[in-house]
Amino acid sequence: MTAAISVAEEEISVEAVHRSRWEPLIFGPPDRPRWERPGLFALLIVTAVVYLWGLGGAGWTNPYYAAAVQSGTQSWKALLFASLDPQNAITVDKPPAAMWVMALSGRVFGFNSWSMLAPEALMGVAAVGLLFATVRRWAGPAAGLLAGTALAVTPVAAMMFRYDNPDALLTLVLVGAAYCTVRAVDAPDARWRSESTGWLVGAGVLMGLGFLTKMMQAFLVLPGLALVVLLAGAGGILSRIAKLATAGAALVVSAGWYVALVELWPADSRPFIGGSTSNSLWELAVDYNGLGRVFGNHGGGGGHPAATPQPKPAPPVDAVVASGGGGQPRGGFGGFGDSHPGVTRLFHGELATEFSWLLPAALIGLIAGLWLTRRVVRTDRVRAGLVLWGGWLLVTAAVLSYMSRSFHSYYSVMLAPAIAALVGIGATQLWQRRDQLAARIILALMLIATGVWTFELLHRTPDWLPGLRWSIAVLALAAAAMVLGVTRFRRYGLVIAGVALFSALIGPTVYTLETVAQTQEGGSPIAGPPRPSHGQGGRDGGSADPQLDSLITAANNRWAAAAVGASQVSAIELRTGAALLAVGGFSGRDESPTLAQFQSYVADHQVGYYLVQQRKQDGGWRSDTESTSAQITAWVKANFPVTMLGNMEVYRLDT
User: Fold this and answer.
1) Which pLDDT score, from 0 to 100, does residue 532 have?
2) Residue 273: left (phi > 0), alpha (psi -120 to 50), or beta?
3) Phi, psi of 152 (to 5 degrees)
4) Which residues pair with 358 in a beta bridge?
5) What is 488-499 written as a DSSP string?
6) DSSP secondary-structure letter at 286?
7) Interhelix angle 222-232/167-186, nearest 10 degrees
8) Torsional sign, CA 88, 93, 94, 95
């Protein structure tokens, strides 16, 4: 009997040891709520499943960048510069950081749709986790979970985390910079040589990586990050300024090394910098991908239309694809490039459905939170969080609203982390004060505003799930009523909170699931259900022609073929794996190659064929005869024989 009791006690002791060993991994430290870590794990797992689902069949999404990724799997120099072709004629019109990640994945797993897009999806999962960690430090785990969930179900975020545009990496590194800033403010040491400065250097390095991802767009969040350091950081004002200056130096170094490398590399042994007029990465950053987009006066090669309007106004650069020396306009490139700059732009048509489902709640939460913290000490963390994310939201929204050129609806993904964070902070702060009538009224107002705005957004696609908007409207009103009366039903507080969250999140969640279910390809993807008014494609090189592809594959020149603009080149490269020369770069207007350079390539038998895709003329556009690409096309047509393959003129150049 005694022996049996001893064995039982030993088994119980061993079980307790195993339980104590696993509990911290599952539930976290003892001072944290037991639901926090399981809730985070569930959020990340569900996000990963949704974002990774069906990526193998998602296609090339944006063939322009996919071709650069493919080139990076074939040539290390092409990977370094993000060249459109493995023979390094010209780069894409963005810096290479996002292409580095996708191309390295392709080198490890083999180049295909899944290996290209899986890193994008995992960046989305990481961004959700980082946002949770960032918001949690200052507003608690409930706010962090709500913020992470709100980001995960934002339609434009789910779309771009399954797309090969640079925005996935940009979003991740900017949220990472916010996390480092929060850690820097939390560090108590006011000295310059301290943990606080180290975290700010980390933020600067990530901002520099953001520059190498999408150039000056990354800097839209800088005012919010800098302001929170000045407002809530430890030490005197001079100490805080010195730390920010150090972070700025880290930013310059982390971004500037690559700019210096490109500028110092001999121009004749590297690809032409696509989108620039002077073969300069610095010009590309400041003009074409910087101030030129904001003020509308950039002069980059990609910034000139490839066709002259008659009589209607020219579309933005991204709405134009040059082809055959003339450059017929093609839909799908410009997104909302024809929208008018102004306060209402972000609420225009389909654009608002990309990101703004929780925007009313975020703005109400921001205003209410700032009012509640108006008398707190300078270093109050809740107010600091509101300043950080409010600055991020307001500055970014202002720039996107008033930028003059080449505006795409998916740029709104920049707003998603800030909206999600403000919703998490505002809602939880008010819920904690639910014993106060004013807090309950504001919470109810947030729910009603969210329900009304969700109704309006769903009304913009009236044929898609028409009953959903009415159900959400009724549910939002019921949730608001329950929140107002929550003090009378304290035992049902969790149920009421669950109903309120469900009413607010069900709209964007369903819209996001519909977005994930759609397959899109082109330069201007749109979240949500397909719309007849907007082509879900927008960038292709025409239908595949087996005879043409066979001809290209059999060519053994440096470039199997050349064509004007990136459209045909990208599509054919992805189909055949061959290197093609994109005359004029993205839009056909870059000065690369010059006529003399192209003639030299042909004389040296470096180009096999020249392709001119015939397009239907609508009488509204004149061919541009002044661009270098038009001159090259005219020279080819005058000197080489042509063969028709479908609607493609094929000129053999190596005869």
Assistant:
1) 62
2) beta
3) -60, -35
4) none
5) G-GGGHHHHHHH
6) I
7) 10
8) positive
pLDDT exceeds 70 at position 378: yes
CA torsion sign, 417 to 423 to 424 to 425? positive
Quickly list DSSP for 17-51.
Answer: HHHHHHHHHHH-STTS-TTHHHHHHHHHHHHHHHH
Residue 466: cis peptide before it, omega within 30 degrees of 0: no
Q: Are strands 621-623 and 642-645 parallel, antiparallel or unpaired?
A: unpaired
Residue 46 burial by CB count (10 A; 0-12/13-18/19+): exposed, middle or buried? middle
Spatial separation of the C-alpha atoms in residues 407 and 318, rounded to whole Å: 9
Residue from 332, 325, 279 nearest 301 by CA: 279
DSSP string, 300-335: -GGGS-SEEESSSPPPPGGGB---TTT--B-TTSST
**Enclosing H/E stretch for 249:** helix 237-264
Q: What is the pLDDT averaged over residues 94-99?
A: 95
pLDDT tens track for 449-507 = 999 999 999 999 999 999 999 999 999 999 999 999 887 877 888 999 999 999 999 99
Higher pLDDT, 296 or 210: 210
| C-beta separation of 650 from 642 below 8 A | yes
Of 31, 23, 164, the C-alpha closest to 94 is 164
Average the pLDDT over 21-30 and give the result. 69
- The whole-angstrom distance between residue 582's C-alpha and the CA centroid of its chain comes to 25
Pairing of strands 559-564, 607-613: parallel
Percentage of the chain lying above the pLDDT 70 cut? 84
Relative to beta strand 559-564, strand 580-583 is parallel
pLDDT at 358: 97
Token output for 350: 């389909």
Give the pLDDT band (50/70/90) at residue 633: very high
* CA–CA distances in Å: residue 332 to residues 337, 472, 524, 538, 637: 10, 32, 6, 4, 29
Dump pLDDT digits (tens) for 639-649: 999 999 988 99
Amino acid at 34: R
Domain ranges of the chain: 44-257+340-517, 546-652
Residue pLDDT, tens place only, 404-421: 767 788 999 999 999 999
Whether the Cβ atoms of residue 608 and residue 653 lie closer than 8 Å to each other: yes
**For residue 609, what are its two tokens?**
């064929």
Structure token pair of residue 240:
């805080």
Q: Model's pTM, two decimal places?
A: 0.89
Output the six-digit token pair for 119: 């890193």
